[in-house]
Amino acid sequence: MTAAPGKNADRGDAAIDVPTIRGQLPALSRTVHDKPLIYLDAAATTPRPQPVIDAVTSYETNYPANVHRGVHELSGEATAAYEDARRRIAAFLGAQTHGLVFTRGTTESINLVANTSGGTLEPGDEVLISALEHHANIVPWQLACQRTGSALRVVDVDDHATLHLAAVEDAITDRTRIIAITQVSNAVGTLTPIREICTLARSRGITSLVDAAQAAPHMGVDFADTGCDFMAFSGHKMYAPTGIGGLLASPSMLDAMPPWQGGGDMIRTVSFESCTWNEVPWKFEAGTPNIGGAIGLGAAVDWLGGIGMHAIAAREQELLGDAVARLHSIDRIRLIGEPTKRAGAISFVVEGMHPADVGAMLDRHGIAVRAGHHCAQPILERFGISATVRIAPAFYNTHDELESFEAALRRIIDVFG
Ligand code: PLP
């Protein structure tokens, strides 16, 4: 369902040219179960814009060569495009070019840190995470703690799912070595005071990692300004293909870390007795990377930058406000988490109905939502449930779509609830 030009302007769509944006996202124009697709699942993955599809297609079609190792023209072109993508993506996220390690995404980035910096943990040391974390920011730390005899500590949220700086401060002890916290919760949408947390960590000499998987698509994320040591993100949540993402850190920090995965490209010299390592960030990029993915992510940040992250954030706040109000207006719906600051997602349950059933019935209306534990079981347990329905509107959605979502939900509850 595409908004007619100007139709939504007086409903707050003026800053972003929604019809044009939607025209650049081909997946949005398809139908599902004979209904126009209403895609409310950006927190799981985002649709890919045509410039990203074109950039990947151009690499695969015109210069599908390996990087850093060929003397021929195609390899030179691939290397230039891959490294230029690194430069643009790092700049977009406020990091130095050589402070961006390409990974498969947030999960691999956090595992990289947990397996390298995490290796410096000693028995009795503590890693502090929050109750909001995605499994990707829990399990790697659990494994690191098991390997090193250190302990995983969790700072709780309040009953609205807000994470308070004071609670983080209270949870810090003289054994806290690493604080790893999400900037935005994928499950309940909490926006955390990440800058303050990282400033606090730095003042206490504690290493900090920010899981920016859900923040990067929704606001102007700035690695340097956040004041963290590490930041992890996923390309597919910011309009790029799957299988590409990154870890941001200062080059000197990366330099001081031991390598993680071994193989081609991450070495300078190899003999059977010993190796020397490549410079950073390539020291952490063993094997043939996802070249097309990196080029696609470069195109994605160009696209996002052209629209403007401030405009995106403003429009999404307005859509979230509309969606929250609509959900509040329906009897038998309970929002899970009403944090003071929200981005990205809204979770809810319908009294007497299983979230999976609600999700499946919305799908019959052409409405894509997620139902389940959202890879964040502990925060749902914190609220005494095991699953929710989650909607994650993004700037390409329209108020008309939210109206259709509300109408479908009311119908489902009336007929099946
Ligand atoms: N962290 C958060 C907050 C997420 O929402 C996700 C994915 O949903 C991840 C980490 C893991 O991202 P990926 O599966 O792209 O590695």
Layout: helices, strands, pairs:
Layout: H1 18-23, E1 31-32, E2 35-36, E3 38-39, H2 50-62, H3 73-92, E4 100-103, H4 106-116, E5 126-130, H5 139-148, E6 151-155, H6 165-171, E7 176-182, H7 194-203, E8 207-211, H8 223-226, E9 230-234, E10 245-248, H9 251-256, E11 267-270, E12 275-277, H10 291-307, H11 309-328, E13 333-335, E14 346-350, H12 355-364, E15 367-368, E16 370-372, H13 377-382, E17 388-391, H14 399-416
Helix pairs in contact: 2-10, 3-10, 4-5, 11-14
Description:
The chain has 417 residues and is of the alpha/beta class. The protein folds into two domains: 18-48 and 308-416, Aspartate Aminotransferase, domain 1 (Alpha-Beta Complex), CATH 3.90.1150; 52-305, 3-Layer(aba) Sandwich (Aspartate Aminotransferase, domain 2). It is 38% helix and 16% strand. It has 14 helices and 17 strands. The strands form five sheets. A seven-stranded mixed β-sheet has the order 4-10-9-8-7-5-6, with helices on both faces. Strands 13-14-17-16 form a four-stranded antiparallel β-sheet, with helices on one face. Strands 1-2 form a two-stranded antiparallel sheet. Helix 4 runs parallel beside helix 5 (139-148) and helix 11 (309-328) packs parallel to helix 14 (399-416). The longest helix has 20 residues, at 73-92. It is globular, with a radius of gyration of 22 Å. The structure holds pyridoxal-5'-phosphate.
